[in-house]
Recover the amino acids of this structure.
């Protein structure tokens, strides 16, 4: 794919690019909607992602061409660096422009460039294709800034800060009020490892994945829009946190609330705030426990936590959908099943299944069949491999 995107650039713009960057998509393994509540997540970068090749040009107009499955027309964009405020709703170029705006806000002079993009992450499936695009743009454009200005970009900007630049693009430019998880996992990933993140301290541990384990994902093809329902869920979490904060100012986020405290405050909270908080507080506890179980090699117990997490999504956070439930339920009945749950924002997208490695292929094809029987619909499965985080190279 790297060679492909470089060749694509050469065909499109007449000679080779200067810079190549790759940034992976991610899977959320445990810890749902905990990131913006300053809690914990176990995630992984995958070996699928966005490939970005570029070269500086004179003037202030950027030209970008994309070749991504599922986006067949409308592959060309030109935009002026002096006119970035002009955005088109739902335009893929917003993920590039928004990153440039974030870099400019931080005082960097971004040179104009021409670029080509290819991607192996399924679009809008819950593997964060958009975050992987943002992080690939960050690293590639960062390299151009470093080459053409005095700024020592990679010495100054930490990995966590790169993730915040991507998140800034999403929050301020695209208009989705999402947390830091997707971008953070894309930069912090390590092959054959999960990323254990603390979204208060931004500390990271890479936890080895057991070698006899495979990750199967299954796509519902139900498109999730993270602008509306996501925002609503986030508000309910904040309301619940405010209640605890008004009684104890040291408690600023749901991260600071235990299940016992939540239960004793149940009568004082609205039913919705209680249910959303119940999910988040439970997820934090499951991530902490899950991390210990993984380290101890207790993978079957870990799998149970994944299924509990999905049940909590159904009962408390109400961010599942019948298709995701059918996939998780079908998976649970199959040979080799360890655990399964929805992955990411929810309301559609993918389910992630931990499966005994030697059974993964049969599991995936049985899952497709069983899902069809149950719902009459098709799913697509991928056996996912955990991969390294984003990187950039000169070509
Ligand atoms: C989406 C968001 C993340 C995170 C997850 C849910 O992927 O982009 O920040 O909140 O949903 O855990």
């Amino acid at each position: 794919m790297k060679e492909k995107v470089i060749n694509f650039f050469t065909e499109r713009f007449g000679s080779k690019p200067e810079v190549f960057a790759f940034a992976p998509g991610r899977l959320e393994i445990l810890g749902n909607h905990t990131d913006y509540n300053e809690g914990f997540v176990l995630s992984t970068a995958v070996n699928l992602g966005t490939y970005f090749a570029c070269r500086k040009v004179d003037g202030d107009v950027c030209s970008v061409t994309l070749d991504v499955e599922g986006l067949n027309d409308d592959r060309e964009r030109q935009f002026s660096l002096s006119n970035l405020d002009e955005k088109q709703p739902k335009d893929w170029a917003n993920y590039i422009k928004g990153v440039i705006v974030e870099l400019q806000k931080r005082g960097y002079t971004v040179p104009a460039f021409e670029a080509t993009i290819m991607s192996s992450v399924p679009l809008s499936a819950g593997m964060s294709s958009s975050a992987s695009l943002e992080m690939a743009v960050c690293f590639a454009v960062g390299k151009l800034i470093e080459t053409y200005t005095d700024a020592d970009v990679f010495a100054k900007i930490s990995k966590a800060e790169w993730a915040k630049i991507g998140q800034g693009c999403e929050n301020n430019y695209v208009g989705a009020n999402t947390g830091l998880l997707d971008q953070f996992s894309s930069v912090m990933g390590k092959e054959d490892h999960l990323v254990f993140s603390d979204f208060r301290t931004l500390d990271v541990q890479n936890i080895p994945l057991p070698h006899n384990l495979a990750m199967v994902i299954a796509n519902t093809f139900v498109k999730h829009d993270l602008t509306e329902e996501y925002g609503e869920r986030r508000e309910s979490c904040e309301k619940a946190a405010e209640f605890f904060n008004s009684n104890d100012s040291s408690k600023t986020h749901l991260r600071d609330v235990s299940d016992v405290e939540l239960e004793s405050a149940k009568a004082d909270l609205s039913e919705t705030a209680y249910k959303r908080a119940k999910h988040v507080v439970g997820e934090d506890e499951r991530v902490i426990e899950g991390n210990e179980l993984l380290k101890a090699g207790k993978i079957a117990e870990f799998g149970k936590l994944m299924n509990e997490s999905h049940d909590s999504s159904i009962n408390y956070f109400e961010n599942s959908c019948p298709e995701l439930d059918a996939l998780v339920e079908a998976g649970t009945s199959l040979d080799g099943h360890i655990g399964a749950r929805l992955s990411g924002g929810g309301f559609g997208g993918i389910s992630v299944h931990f499966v005994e490695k030697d059974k993964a292929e049969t599991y995936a094809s049985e899952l497709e069949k069983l899902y069809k029987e149950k719902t009459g619909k098709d799913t697509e499965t991928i056996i996912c491999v955990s991969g390294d985080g984003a990187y950039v190279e000169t070509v």
Notes: Residues 28, 32-33, 35-36, 178-179, 181-182, 344-345 surround alpha-D-galactopyranose (CB under 6 Å). The longest strand covers residues 40-56.
